[in-house]
Design a protein that fits this description.
This protein is mainly alpha-helical and 89 residues long. It contains four helices and two strands. A two-stranded antiparallel sheet has the order 1-2. Helix 2 packs antiparallel against helix 3. 16% of the residues are buried.
């Protein structure tokens, strides 16, 4: 699988959203990444992932941002989920 950089994903994006890079190097971020991940998992997850890509996609994006922006408050949080503080110049 290619790296996020090879897929044209900016380094800072990985600090703020889930990234999914396909075996051929196509990169996805945010709710698109979650949808592609679910679809690739197969089974009962595929339809859920596909549903995230239909016109309700805007709602999926809003829900994703809500979860991502509050991930430190969600169960199962870890230090790996922490968003770094902005550096002062």
């Amino acid at each position: 699988m290619g790296s996020a950089c090879e897929a044209g994903v900016a380094g800072q994006e990985g600090l703020y959203e889930v990234l999914w890079v396909t075996p051929v190097g196509t990169g996805y971020g945010g709710s698109d990444a979650v949808a592609k991940l679910l679809m690739s998992a197969g089974g009962a997850w595929s339809p859920l992932g596909a549903a995230l890509l239909v016109p309700a996609r805007s709602a999926a994006h809003v829900l994703y941002r809500l979860a991502a922006d509050n991930r430190s408050r969600l169960p199962g949080r870890s230090r790996a989920c922490a968003v770094p503080e902005p550096r002062s110049a």
